[in-house]
Amino acid sequence: MSDHYQTLGVSRDASPEEIKKAYRKKARTLHPDVNPSPEAAEEFKRVSHAHDVLSDPDKRRVYDATGNENGNNTGFGGGFPGSGFGFSDIFETFFQGAGGARGPESRVRQGQDALINVRVSLRDAVFGTEKEVTVDTAVTCTLCEGQGTEKGTEPETCDVCHGQGHIQRQVQSILGNVVTTAECPSCRGFGTVIKHPCPECYGEGRVRQRKPLTLKIPAGVATGTRIRLGGQGEAGTGGGPNGDLYVELRVNPDETFTREGDDLHATMTVPMTAAALGTTISLETFDGPQDVTVKPGTQTGQTTTLRDLGVTKLRGNGRGNVVVHFDVETPSKLNDEQRELLKRLAELRGEDDAVGETLQNTGQGFFSRLRDRFQD
């Protein structure tokens, strides 16, 4: 038996796309419509059979393990030494038999599900949005409308299995000569052969294509949220139905806000004088500018809350809040006039004796006492 990987000219760790690409390349030169020689026809059968085995994950797994897509080998684990007859053949013989074998398989198969990642802004996550994306996927071939055949032609009954999709073989075993059933290598179990494949899809009934898609992203989504779009996945073979498309979202970081659940957090830097005297500062939120009240004596780390301006709840009503964190800024550079004013303030507050003290020679540093005085 020829090695399927050698037949297609791919390595044993080839990806499904590499296997499909190698098959299509060989099919272009070996197909009976292109090369009518008997040798090419035989090689085309081998290539088609190799593609059928290696493109099916289950068959490929069995083939890699046993060297035979039917699951039998010449070792003790696969059956009986030297007989070429495996345990799978016994089950086929007694539970399927010549008269109980399955009929031909349908070429119509559902397409695979697909997954894409889409990035959105934090604003889009707050309110929801519609986003245009381009998806690289398998779509139904428009030239043959998914049938896989050249226009004006149809699949023809396989002359090897006569439309049954399987063939019988006689195998010698410890039970004597038994007849087993195997998939027809010529039609790959379909019972028909596409002798005139569509020049666009090469008999698959679908082609790869980039197509635009409009995504409706609901409000309240977060990184990791998945949206299922039924019937938007890859088209099936033979005109089969599409699989589903899953969209996994990633929310981009925002310059102003961080998110914790449905709440948004922002940090506002407040001058020391404004924190001491109190003021009102405007904060640009996703709902527009909002006045934030800084109470007199505000300290670093204190917060205030703007209610119902956070993230829309994904499952439920209402929105979270905006939590504003204050960071009181102490001036690092003072001119002479500003320094004199601060000294005068220290004198008025009875803190002039602490100016210039260090944390090493007093139990309570100047800034700690200054903070306590502001809180008085």
From TrEMBL:
Chain positions recorded as Zn(2+) 1 binding sites: 141, 144, 198, 201
PROSITE patterns xref list: DNAJ_1 (PS00636), DNAJ_2 (PS50076), ZF_CR (PS51188)
Q: Where in the cell is it found?
A: Cytoplasm
Cofactor(s), by name: Zn(2+)
Q: Which residues form the J domain?
A: 3-67
Q: Whereabouts are the CXXCXGXG motif repeats?
A: 141-148, 158-165, 184-191, 198-205
The CR-type domain is annotated at 128-210
Q: Name one GO cellular component term.
A: cytoplasm
GO terms of biological process kind:
DNA replication; protein refolding; response to heat
Record's keyword terms, sorted: Chaperone, Cytoplasm, DNA replication, Metal-binding, Repeat, Stress response, Zinc, Zinc-finger
Q: Name one GO molecular function term.
A: ATP binding
Name the domain of life: Bacteria
Q: Which InterPro entries match?
A: DnaJ (IPR012724), DnaJ_C (IPR002939), DnaJ_domain (IPR001623), DnaJ_domain_CS (IPR018253), HSP40/DnaJ_pept-bd (IPR008971), HSP_DnaJ_Cys-rich_dom (IPR001305), HSP_DnaJ_Cys-rich_dom_sf (IPR036410), J_dom_sf (IPR036869)
What residue intervals correspond to the zinc fingers (CR-type)? 128-210
Coarse class of the primary localization is: cytoplasm
Q: Where does Zn(2+) 2 bind?
A: 158, 161, 184, 187
What information about domains appears in the record's comments?
Answer: The J domain is necessary and sufficient to stimulate DnaK ATPase activity. Zinc center 1 plays an important role in the autonomous, DnaK-independent chaperone activity of DnaJ. Zinc center 2 is essential for interaction with DnaK and for DnaJ activity.
Per the entry, what this protein does is: Participates actively in the response to hyperosmotic and heat shock by preventing the aggregation of stress-denatured proteins and by disaggregating proteins, also in an autonomous, DnaK-independent fashion. Unfolded proteins bind initially to DnaJ; upon interaction with the DnaJ-bound protein, DnaK hydrolyzes its bound ATP, resulting in the formation of a stable complex. GrpE releases ADP from DnaK; ATP binding to DnaK triggers the release of the substrate protein, thus completing the reaction cycle.
Q: How does it assemble?
A: Homodimer.
* Protein family according to the UniProt entry: Belongs to the DnaJ family.
Q: What is this protein called?
A: Chaperone protein DnaJ
Traced from the root, the source organism's taxonomic lineage reads:
Bacteria, Bacillati, Actinomycetota, Actinomycetes, Micrococcales
